[in-house]
Write a structure and sequence with these properties.
- The chain has 505 residues and is an alpha+beta fold.
- The protein folds into 4 domains: 149 residues, Beta Polymerase, domain 2; 84 residues, Hydrophobic Seed Protein, CATH 1.10.110; 192 residues, no CATH class; 48 residues, no CATH class.
- It is built from 26 helices and 11 strands.
- The strands form 3 sheets. It has a 7-stranded mixed β-sheet. A two-stranded parallel sheet has the order 8-9. A two-stranded antiparallel ribbon has the order 10-11.
């Protein structure tokens, strides 16, 4: 990128919004500057709806007044550091919203920029000057951030940048991933030196940065880099025990490296990255479709998708192996109950990082049942009943766990992958997915019997028995044994006569 290309280019609608804000602040005799990520993204010609404005006043007092002037909503961001947000809805047909983050600066704008994180975020523009003469606006760039933008470098503004705000440790890597930039070598040294400080960052902020990192493609380079910087075990100290824990001979890596490679394999299988240990042929064998692609981009909570949470589950799926490792009488290494205990540990971690209850539940189920696909097949294609019970028990995580199992397979064998074994596993997953779709078609539209039938026809009393019988009918319906109401009633009559109905059918 030529330096001449690094010019401000602001959409007319955004410029109009900024002019309104500038006029309001000028009338109040308040000096203001565009700063941070907005200026950076505009110089890079990246779309952004986040606007950062530094004001020579109390931002928490001024921002609500700006919100009223714009017909927007005020949100208090940080009372101690005097930061507030104004949310303004965009007009149709584009929709969406702008978020204007107001921060307070004292002394000079140059001193404010000196307290920021990275040089590329320490560029400012006088807001009044911008709206008066957009074509010839002056960049305030005391740390030569424009040059670092040109060269694709993330560089800390000062040696105390990470001590001032430890969330910047993760933000540096996240920005590099999102922008396709590299970290300055001295900045890497500072991150390694201060990586332990990440433990002091509020869980909400860590969650936000983690999800943005997990959303980035090419985990093959990103995740090992995070580990080299000391950030993986600083954020997840529970994983530190996994380093050096050897596994049975079919495993190429120890528990920790296997976990890292499983995340990389997830991105590979979801067509979001490469994996140096597998060929295009390996990927071509694995199941994929537009339906699956849409499944994994589904949002779960604010900022998270199925894909990002699958990668998080992949990182944590063997987190309890170190404490469950044992040598059996047969001389083999076992990790009994590691999936069950790992699910509990994963819940503790995600709650500490302030993930939502929906996110926590999804990851918990994925970790708890990550061995289930292999247990379901046992070298042969699983039965219709086994498939039904699998999706019943894994609730809405069934598809995700199948792909976690595939990624686990790749990360177990690594460069020693047996193509025939991989093909068998992939075909089993294809079969299970196809049967699941068929079972949904059979079970969901047609409810053959209900609780009233069981009470009035068979004389059952209201209670748990009703649910057990209905579940047995659904399972028989999914497996193709029952297709009509008459067959369902006959099935129930037979089961009740033989007293064979239980929770599992």
């Amino acid at each position: 990128m030529d330096k001449e290309d690094l010019k401000l280019f602001i959409e007319p609608k955004v410029l109009s919004l900024l002019a309104t804000v500038s006029n309001f602040l000028t009338e109040q005799d308040i000096k203001s500057y565009l700063v941070g990520g907005f200026v950076r993204d505009v110089l890079l010609r990246r779309d952004t709806a986040d606007i950062d404005i530094a004001v020579a006043a109390d931002a928490v007092e001024i921002a609500p007044k700006v919100a009223d002037a714009l017909g927007g909503k005020f949100v208090l961001l940080d009372k101690a550091n005097r930061m507030g947000r104004v949310v303004v809805d965009k007009k149709a047909p584009s929709g969406g919203r702008w978020e204007l983050d107001f921060s307070t600066f004292q002394d000079s704008i140059e001193q404010d920029l000196a307290r920021r994180d990275f040089t590329i975020d320490s560029i400012a523009v006088d807001l009044e000057e911008l709206t008066k003469d957009y074509a010839d606006v002056r960049l305030i760039d005391p740390f030569d951030g424009r040059a670092d933008l040109q060269n694709g470098v993330i560089r800390a503004v000062s040696e105390t940048a990470f001590q001032s705000d430890a969330a910047r440790l993760l933000r540096a890597v996240r920005l590099a991933a999102e922008l396709g930039f590299g970290l300055d070598s001295q900045t890497e040294v500072l991150i390694q030196r201060h990586c332990h400080l990440i433990a002091n960052v509020a869980g909400e902020r860590l969650r936000e940065e983690l999800l943005r990192i997990l959303a980035a493609p090419q985990a093959e380079t990103l995740l090992p880099h995070l580990d080299d910087l000391g950030l993986v075990t600083a954020i997840f100290p529970e994983l530190a025990q996994a380093k050096g824990v050897k596994q049975p001979k079919e495993h190429f890596w120890d528990v920790f490296d296997h976990s890292i490679q499983t995340v990389i394999a997830v991105d590979f299988l979801l067509h979001q990255g490469t994996w140096k240990y597998a060929s295009d042929e390996v990927l071509a064998i694995a199941p994929w479709s537009e339906v699956l692609a849409r499944h994994f981009v589904q949002p779960i909570s604010s900022g998270s998708t199925r894909r990002s949470l699958l990668k998080l589950a992949a990182l944590l799926h063997d987190v309890a192996k170190p404490q469950t490792k044992a040598i059996g009488e047969d001389g083999r290494t076992h990790f009994l109950e590691h999936a069950k205990l790992g699910a509990t540990v994963a819940v503790d971690i995600l709650e500490r990082l302030r993930f939502s209850s929906k996110e926590v539940k999804l990851v918990e189920v994925m970790v708890r049942y990550h061995l289930r696909p292999g247990q379901m097949s046992q070298g042969e294609l699983p039965t219709h009943r086994a498939i039904y019970r699998y999706f019943r028990d894994t609730t809405d995580a069934g598809i995700d766990i199948l792909f976690l199992g595939l990624a686990d397979h790749l990360a177990t064998r690594g460069p020693r992958l047996n193509l025939a074994g991989w093909q068998e596993h992939a075909q089993m997953v294809e079969y299970v997915l196809a049967q699941h779709l068929e079972q949904q078609r059979l079970v969901v539209p047609a409810k053959l019997v209900d609780g009233h039938d069981l009470i009035h026809i068979f004389g059952l009393s209201p209670g748990p028995k009703i649910g057990e019988v209905l579940e047995a009918v659904r399972e028989a319906q999914a497996s193709g044994e029952v297709t009509t109401r008459e067959e369902a009633l006959a099935y129930i009559r037979d089961k009740l006569a033989t007293k064979a109905v239980n929770r599992y059918g």
